[in-house]
Design brief:
- The complex is a heterodimer of chains A (about 325) and B (about 325).
- Chain A is mainly α and about 325 residues long.
- Chain A has 14 helices and four strands.
- Chain A has one domain.
- Helix content of chain A is about 75%, strand content about 5%.
- In chain A, α3 packs parallel to α8 and α13 packs antiparallel against α14.
- Chain B has a single domain, classed as ABC transporter involved in vitamin B12 uptake, BtuC (Orthogonal Bundle).
- In chain B, a hairpin with a 2-residue loop joins β1 and β2.
- The chains are: A mainly alpha (about 325), B mainly alpha (about 325).
- Chains A and B meet through α6, α12 and α14 of A and α7, α12 and α14 of B.
Chain lengths: ~325, ~325
Amino acid sequence: MTASRFLRHETILAVLVVIALIVLGAQSDKFFTLDNLLNQGRLMTEVGLIAIVMTFVIITGGIDLSVGSILGLSAILLGVFWKNLGLPLELAIFLALCVGTLAGFVNGIIITRFRFPPLIATLGTLALYRGMAEGISQARSVRGYPDWFYILGQGQSFGIPTQLWLLVFVAIVAAIILGTTTWGRATYAIGSNETAARFSGLRVDWVKIAIYSASGFAAALAAVIFVSRVSTTRSDMGTGIELDAITAVVLGGTSIFGGKGTIVGTMLGLILIQALKNGLSLAGVKSDGTIVLIGAVLILTILVSNVIYRGGTR
Amino acid sequence: MSVEAAPSLRPQRGALTRFVSAYGQEVVIACAIVLLFAVVSAINPRFLAPNNLNTIVSGNAYIAVAAIGMAMVIITGHIDVSVGALIGVLATISGTIAVSGAPVWLAWVVPIFVGMGVNAIVGALIAYGRIPSIVVTLGMLSILRGGLVSVTGGAWINNLPPEFLLAQQRLLGVPVPVWFMIILTIGAFLWMRYTAFGRSLYAIGGNAEAARAAGIPIERRIVQVFMIHGAFAGLATILFATQLKIIQSTVPPNLELTIITAAVIGGVSILGGTGTVIGSTLAAILFSAIGSALIFINVSAYWLRAVIGALILVTVLADMLRRNREMQGAGR
């Protein structure tokens, strides 16, 4: 048992991260500068927030493909509430977060009340929410936000990019909830054996609805940060971010079948992906080449982990 | 739409009831298509112009063809999110061969074999590497998409020889893509329904352990299904790449989701084990009919995706309600 503990997926991943950092650091002296590292933290916040909640979703045995579309819809509505309806920006942000949470809540209702498989439900809402964003915006973008709004996406607090504080805070809270609370235990229980969880008196449907709502909230929060970082809203924002988030979660050792996974793993997966993207681009590899490598790393890590896991238990 | 009446149904009591319960989703979609045509042509008769009908049916034929392979993959209980990227890569390969001066048939045939080869690797990783299909194909999506752009640098392929443009040609007055769609759909439907190999796909998706106990070599079958799916991706590529005089060296955005959606709306259960390719083809036709209808009734095309999203939810809901009722009926 002790030997297999050291061979846990997170350990493999941590070693991979360290190797990647050393190799990438040797390629360029810009890589290990504080500025660069902080900037990378800024860039991974949006995917990170979504990936953290996605970890919960996947541990329950579900999946949420609609997060990118929720991001787009919340971003568009943020612009519409503020510019077209003339609401104060604070209120517009609050309403955008509400819309995102509501969108996630609707996913949860469709999945629990109507018994849709999560893949289908969120595939449907992926199209629906993105379509609403496109229909409402009619391909017009909103710009010209007040200066204070940019602090969130472009500014710093205590020498660290503002949104990085948020990411770290959310990660810690999520890790505590998943690791130590009854909500966390319920999440694992649902993913391991939903029927058993139901018979044990867990409020399975409520836990799921809460998790999908949280997923929508995280996507909306990412939308606000995204808008603040790039200074504009467009309806195609966040397209494909669901695949980035799922990649980080799965790379982090969360089983796609549910019941297994940690926030630490997800964060390591996230860091590995961002380090590869950044390090390779500093070393002169084009970003498209990096995408190839990330795909290969995803497949290989799971393959290696499978081989070791099977070797250790049988 | 009379295509689906073809399979011989045992003429027992209530043949119509049996037909509806066996092909419920296909019937629902066929009705939706008829309803859509009736309503839209009442508002704007030009919707029924031969030119427009041609665009509706042949423009989305490549999605219908790709959805056939996807339906097989989903019926065995797997999924492939990399097929859009694969079609993008195969289109570029096909176009590169076409402009190189090689015989045109080579440009049509090579993508089919490359598609089979790539998906043989995907299938082997899933079957023998025991990695979930969504993980393998997610990785493959990155590899293909990134690989395509880094090799081509995003350059477009121009000056395609006119004889290469198969999708623009007609046979007996019917556009070639429509022939492809009809023949491949019916062929695949009959093959899946009446051959041992085809039945084994349903068996694996329905209950893999039972299928194994029945002597079906599951691992080999999965690799084979993915190779067949790759061949259909290659066939879809031919129709896709020969539509226009240029080929963009990028992956069409969200193509994989459109293809999966066509299969699923067509009645292929995402849990595996049920569904037919006739449903997926009808769904592909329905998509393009909706897209065209929006234009004819003066709704901004920006709403298209919202409509399709709502449609997914409504059709799946209808299907689930129908199944629930049947299960309750069977319980009594």
